[in-house]
Structure to design on (471 residues):
């Protein structure tokens, strides 16, 4: 009898049955069939015939469709007391999404035929049920029309995920400074999401208290819109919007991979750039964030153990997660430690099997001061090499929105003045070499500067022997 009472109490909490008497609920309970599903089991697939309504007695399920790129797009997550598949009770339309249980789950199935027979003999309940379903259908249609109308001018935002298999590599510092630079340089909307659970530090680095966090979105997870998101995201002085991690491990445990996918998906409809910080642990939540990425910036120092872990991540991402190599880009942090490490950027690319797209210098004092003051160094120290390195990285993310960088050492164009080219030469080149090149004024030398590069590199090499350099 206890189990029977608990089920009726569960039905009483189901919104679909609001207003029904205890006797009505008991009658409906007799129609229910228990179904147990193992983690990952598909309850029904998109386009299947609708033949039953399901109520979650325990566990969790997700609704998803396949997008144009054949990637899974999560539409909603459902917890204990939620129901799905209700349109099958009113129409003969096929299922609009695939439903899968996320963990082990117990569902109560209400078969369509049995419910129709029940309604036929209970006309007052039929009228009430049809009224409830009609209101829900009208609300659903309104949301869809609003989404379509807003979508006429909507561009899906670019998702940039920063990941490092080792902690303490500067990933979070890079994430917040990159986000601020994207906002500053493009003038477009930027959001930062702290998915480094537990103990995310984005709030600390931006001097924001976790008054509102992603946990506050969970009650609205299946109805996220601009108004709800804007009420939870916090504003930074730079104009960047921030979705903070919860302050306690207990709250972190409430967040699932499906929640993260839904939140990031909703943010991409509102912001043009979404920068996401992740935890080094390869968790389901981290993978969910990585799945949303247009580009994954894998941050690593010049250390063999770290590079080994990066290689393992790249291999796993390609072989197990199905990512393409062009989705991943290596960012070498503390790159001016080359001499001490005995490694260079070419070594990194060979070791990890992925393209190195940027290198960030080491300036421990500046970075630490920025962290401790809660002010990103791209705001406080715009004349620093760190700022310039991060700006180059931002240009890779938004190549058409940020002024193009100076030309690379190996890509000098013939119509670029020598003086302008000099500004792009490596800082290791001595003042004498710069002055010597600047004194060249003949068209042949000006246009042929590219052929002098071996000589320039030789002169500027810290390990150069006493042998003469040749152009």
């Amino acid at each position: 009898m206890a189990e029977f009472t608990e089920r009726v109490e569960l039905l009483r909490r189901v919104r679909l049955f609001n207003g029904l008497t205890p006797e009505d609920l008991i009658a409906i309970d007799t129609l229910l069939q228990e179904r147990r599903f193992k983690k990952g089991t598909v309850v029904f697939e998109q386009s299947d015939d609708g033949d039953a309504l399901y109520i979650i007695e325990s566990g969790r399920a997700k609704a998803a469709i396949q997008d144009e790129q054949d990637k899974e797009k999560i539409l909603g997550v459902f917890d204990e007391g939620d129901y799905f598949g209700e349109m099958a009770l009113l129409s003969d339309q096929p299922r609009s999404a695939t439903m899968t249980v996320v963990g082990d789950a117990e569902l109560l199935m209400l078969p369509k035929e049995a419910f129709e027979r029940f309604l036929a003999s209970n006309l007052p309940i039929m009228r009430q049920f049809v009224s409830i379903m009609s209101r829900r259908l009208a609300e659903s249609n309104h949301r869809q029309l609003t989404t379509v109308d807003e979508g006429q001018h909507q561009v899906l935002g670019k998702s940039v995920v920063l990941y490092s298999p080792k902690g303490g590599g500067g990933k979070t510092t890079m994430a917040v400074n990159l986000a601020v630079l994207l906002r500053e340089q493009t003038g477009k909307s930027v959001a930062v999401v702290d998915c480094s659970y537990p103990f995310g530090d984005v709030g600390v680095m931006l001097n924001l208290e976790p008054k509102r966090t992603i946990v506050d979105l969970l009650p609205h997870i299946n109805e996220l819109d601009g108004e709800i998101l804007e009420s939870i995201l916090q504003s930074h002085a730079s104009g960047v919007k921030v979705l903070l991690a919860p302050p306690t491990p207990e709250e972190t445990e409430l967040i699932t991979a499906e929640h993260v996918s839904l939140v990031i998906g909703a943010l991409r409809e509102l912001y043009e750039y979404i920068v996401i910080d992740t935890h080094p642990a390869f968790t389901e939540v981290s993978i969910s964030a990585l799945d949303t990425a247009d580009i994954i910036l894998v941050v690593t120092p010049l250390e063999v153990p770290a590079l080994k872990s990066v290689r393992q991540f790249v291999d796993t991402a390609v072989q197990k997660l199905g990512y393409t190599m062009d989705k991943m880009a290596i960012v070498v942090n503390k790159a001016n430690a080359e001499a001490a490490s005995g490694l260079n950027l070419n070594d990194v690319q060979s070791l990890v099997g992925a393209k190195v797209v940027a290198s960030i210098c080491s300036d421990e004092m500046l970075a630490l001061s920025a962290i401790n003051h809660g002010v990103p160094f791209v705001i406080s120290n715009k004349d620093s090499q760190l700022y310039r390195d991060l700006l180059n990285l931002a240009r890779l993310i938004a190549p058409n929105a940020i002024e193009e960088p100076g030309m690379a050492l190996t890509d000098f164009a013939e119509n670029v003045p020598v003086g302008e080219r000099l500004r792009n030469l490596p800082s290791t080149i001595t003042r004498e070499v710069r002055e010597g090149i600047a004194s060249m004024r003949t068209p042949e030398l000006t246009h042929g500067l590219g052929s002098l590069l071996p000589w320039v590199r030789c002169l500027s090499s810290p390990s150069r022997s006493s042998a003469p350099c040749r152009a």
